[in-house]
């Protein structure tokens, strides 16, 4: 088989591979491939991989990032949904025996089983990906909620979503996504990325974000499921006070008295808005509501 000596992600080689295989991009699968070495290097660097570690890539495309990961990590598993890309990946990644290509939808993949099979011999695992933007949140929530043994997650996502994930209380970007992500991890914006590093170029701006996965949540929550229900209720209507939003969800037929006593117990002024509450305040509030028998 012929291999040019170029890295996969040069614009010339990307075009050559795509052309030779008669590949056409599917917008519905979020196919925007990276063609910039600097960005690829930055993404891989941010994960802090070394020859004792493993990497899971979601959506390898034609393998540009996969190749960089293979040069750093002991084991790389790449999950790709598009069957048309599998023979291309097998061809371009042939020089890297430590890479395993898995054909499937990551949202339907048993990741715990995949980890047991592919990462039994590595010290730590990172998820590293240029994610398909149409499923960014479900993919990240699956990775975090399944409590996989991950060191960090370094991903290219839509800039606006990255800003929401990393937002602090009291800002316009802060919401239930910030709280969910920050409950499981410590997010940091690595860099903002121009559209010109992709083919085809996406319609939105992009950013690389690193989520350092926490060993323990930073707050004590008595029932995680209920905690997230309270968070969602608090943001149901952003312009409403916490008291109004909670009343609608938990006390639709009662007066306000009981709710205001419980908010007082949690140390929260009823006139505040959900977007001003810290993770700790949400934890205290959900524990108080749960203690009062709410569900
Ligand atoms: N990693 C490549 C790069 O950076 O050039 C491609 C990234 S592209 C933004 C997203 C990739 O995810 C595409 O290859 C697409 O086919 C794949 N993909 C989309 N939905 C997926 C899913 N549910 N599970 C696995 N892969 C998916």
From TrEMBL:
Protein location: Cytoplasm
The UniProt entry's GO CC annotations, sorted and at most eight, read: cytosol
The keyword Cytoplasm appears for this protein: yes
Q: Which NCBIfam families match?
A: ksgA
What exactly does this protein do? Answer: Specifically dimethylates two adjacent adenosines (A1518 and A1519) in the loop of a conserved hairpin near the 3'-end of 16S rRNA in the 30S particle. May play a critical role in biogenesis of 30S subunits.
Which E.C. number(s) belong to this protein? Answer: 2.1.1.182
Pinpoint the Ribosomal RNA adenine methylase transferase N-terminal domain residues: 39-215
Chain sites annotated for binding S-adenosyl-L-methionine: 32, 34, 59, 80, 105, 130
Record key words, sorted? Cytoplasm, Methyltransferase, RNA-binding, rRNA processing, S-adenosyl-L-methionine, Transferase
Give the Gene Ontology MF terms in alphabetical order: 16S rRNA (adenine(1518)-N(6)/adenine(1519)-N(6))-dimethyltransferase activity; RNA binding
User: InterPro entries given for it?
Assistant: KsgA/Erm, rRNA_Ade_diMease-like_C, rRNA_Ade_Mease_Trfase_CS, rRNA_Ade_methylase_Trfase_N, rRNA_adenine_dimethylase, SAM-dependent_MTases_sf
The species this protein was found in:
Paenibacillus azoreducens
What the record says about family reads: Belongs to the class I-like SAM-binding methyltransferase superfamily. rRNA adenine N(6)-methyltransferase family. RsmA subfamily.
Q: What does UniProt give as the signal peptide span? A: none
What name does UniProt use for this protein? Ribosomal RNA small subunit methyltransferase A
């Amino acid at each position: 088989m012929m291999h040019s000596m170029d890295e996969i992600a040069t614009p010339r080689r990307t075009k050559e591979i795509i052309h030779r295989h008669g590949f056409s991009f599917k917008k519905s699968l979020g196919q925007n491939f990276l063609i910039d070495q600097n960005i690829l290097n930055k993404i891989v660097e941010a994960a802090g991989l070394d020859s004792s570690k493993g990497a899971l890539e979601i959506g390898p495309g034609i393998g540009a990032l996969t190749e960089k990961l293979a040069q750093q990590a002991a084991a790389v598993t790449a999950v790709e949904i598009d069957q048309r890309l599998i023979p291309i990946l097998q061809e371009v990644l042939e020089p890297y025996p430590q890479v395993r290509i898995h054909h499937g939808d990551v949202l339907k993949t048993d990741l715990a089983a995949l980890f047991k099979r592919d990462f039994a011999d590595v010290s730590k695992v990172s998820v590293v990906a240029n994610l398909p933007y149409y499923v960014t949140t479900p993919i990240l929530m699956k990775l975090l909620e399944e409590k996989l043994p991950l060191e960090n997650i370094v991903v290219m996502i839509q800039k606006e979503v990255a800003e929401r994930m990393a937002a602090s209380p009291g800002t316009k970007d802060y919401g239930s996504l910030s709280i969910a992500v920050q409950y499981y991890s410590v997010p940091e914006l690595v860099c903002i990325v121009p559209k010109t590093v992709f083919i085809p170029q996406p319609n939105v701006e992009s950013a690389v974000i690193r989520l350092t996965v926490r060993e323990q949540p930073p707050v004590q929550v008595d029932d995680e499921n209920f905690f997230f229900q309270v968070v969602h209720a608090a943001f149901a209507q952003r312009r409403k006070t916490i008291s109004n939003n909670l009343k609608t969800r938990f006390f639709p037929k009662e007066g306000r008295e009981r709710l205001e006593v419980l908010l007082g117990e949690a140390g929260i002024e009823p006139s505040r808005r959900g977007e001003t509450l810290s993770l700790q305040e949400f934890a205290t509030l959900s524990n108080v509501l749960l203690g009062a028998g709410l569900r």
